[in-house]
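Supplementary Text 2. Reproducibility record for the structural model of the 684-residue chain.

All settings were left at their defaults, and a single model was retained for analysis rather than an ensemble. We include the record here because the model underlies the residue-level annotations in Supplementary Table 4.
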Amino acid sequence: MSLNLVFDRPVSADHTVQFTSSNATVFPVPAVMHFQPGTTSIPVAVTPNQVTSDTTVTITAVSGNSTKTVNTTVHPLVIQTFSASATEIIGGSRPVITVAMNLPRVENTQITLVANSNLVTIPSSLSIPGRSNDSTPPSVTFELITLAATNQTSVTITAAMPAALGGGTKTLTITILPVALASVSLQKQQCDLTKDCPSTISGTLTLNGAAPVGGLTIQLSSDRPQSATVSPSSVLIAQGQSTGAFSVAIPQAAALGNVQITAQAGSGSSKSTTLALTKTFLGVESLTLSSGSTQGGTPIVGTVTVRQYVVSGNGPQVQTPVTPTQSQVNVTVSISGSGLSQQLSLNVPAGQSNGTFNYTPPSTAATESRNLMAFANSVTGGDGVGRTATLTVNPATFNAFTLSENNVQGGKVVTGTIQMSGPVPFSNSVTVTSSDQAAASNINTQFASNSPNGTVTVQTSANVTNPTTVTLTASFAGQTSTAQLTVTRPSTLSGISFPSNRLLSGVPTTLRIDLDGPAPNGGATIFLTGGPGSVVPVQPQVTIPAGQSSASVAVTPVNVPNPTLGNVVASFGNNQSKFVQVTVESPAIDICNASPSNVTGGSTINCTVTLLNSGMVAPEGGIRLNIQNSNPAIISLPQTITIPAGQNSTSLQITTQQVTQNTDVNLALSLPNQGFSRHFTLTP
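Retained model, structure tokens:
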């Protein structure tokens, strides 16, 4: 090392500087140094001596009246680092050892090495090179030669400084492990017995280092020798080698499952590997439903996904999502639950991996569960893989319960409609009850097969005297729906009548039929009869419209030579009837009886047409008579004449033409099948 001496200006002449050291033994310095004129600075070489501990020394420089001091610490020279690239090694390996000093030294430093075991080979000494111009601490490395150990052994190596430099030491411990079996491996870890499994599979034994002197013997075994046989049963790995070979034979009768191959090196730990003996097939990977819950009678769609599977001792596992392309796969879907057993089948086409099916669960009266399992039919011998799904089947619910009419007269049969959200199991699965059996009973329900709609019939009672509201309750699967029905007293036939008890044959009249209340919905049908050969013929029936209490029918009595009794009977409902009796007589009509028979032509005849039947008048609608004359050229008449209702006569005006001689004219008035005439003579 050197001291650097610096002047504040160049010296002008030969200059002398005196040096002193506070510890010249450790740090000797020159007593006097001379400097040439012009010198501004100069290094002063010094060499401190070895110390056993840190020592501080003061150096003093005196130039004339100027004095300068500097303090420096002298450190002892020691081994700073004594290390290995690995301190735990397998016998036979060669770690790198590093020895480094803490300080540079001009001279070489000899380091002595000593080991406490013959398992390592080391140099007896190392020379640490000196450095005069480099302040970097020097170091040296070497390769440690080791031997194989039968047991784990710790080796201590000691590095010592020369005695002249204090004799300090540094130790390094290396742990040498014995050679052991690191792994056992197979060329194939999985063999598919259906396609690519060879009869022999090669295997490799690997040590964690080179085999020791005499080699290392490895014992081999198989836990299923009937399916995989190891050969040979023991392998000697030669000295210096780290691997050995063996083989596993697979017989044709090998069974599916995992085989464990175990290797044992002496009393050391064992290593094993697993050989999976498998079989590949196409099976069902998943079964999914378009809905996990549906209503009986409502279809759902199921989807089956087919994949390639591998069966081994640990059960089936998906190998790869391979889409089957060689041929179609036939899949069976088994359905069970609630006493039901059913099977569906579908084909997944070649080139596809998914197939679908439709399933319509039968209608049910309670919530039920269906278990669906899909499996590929090509899989046999217990290798089939089923995939399941659960379907909840719910009963249908009420959509509507309606009646054809909600207000009826007692005695009528009322119909209704029940609309469900889906079909029901049986035709009579839905029951309907009445809150008042006295007013509405004999209820019948009927559902067609696989139909969500049913019909209801309800018999109402004709004995209801006051309006009665009945609640009809439809029940199914714990659900109810109601409809209201009001039953009122039925109207009865109160009477039938003609405007008069005397009727004129050939003259239309009306027969009136009366109820004591309004006709029910749909009207009231009244049956009429006049009896065989009746002089009062009537139509067989008449309907009184709903809400009305009477109806009239037209009746035209037949011609009779003499007054004749006629009867009409009206019937309605249960044994209700009414009777009316009338006398039918032929009408007697007088035509202008008060007018003269000889009339001057060109004059007007004003006369009267009279109903001569005693005490009778024309009925409602009047008596309409047709008029004819024998000479319309000279006499003008209307085509008809009517005796007004409630009257027994009417006026008739006859207009005549002039004549040149007496001319006879006949005037005729007629009813159906009846005629009346009058003769006139027109004079000039």
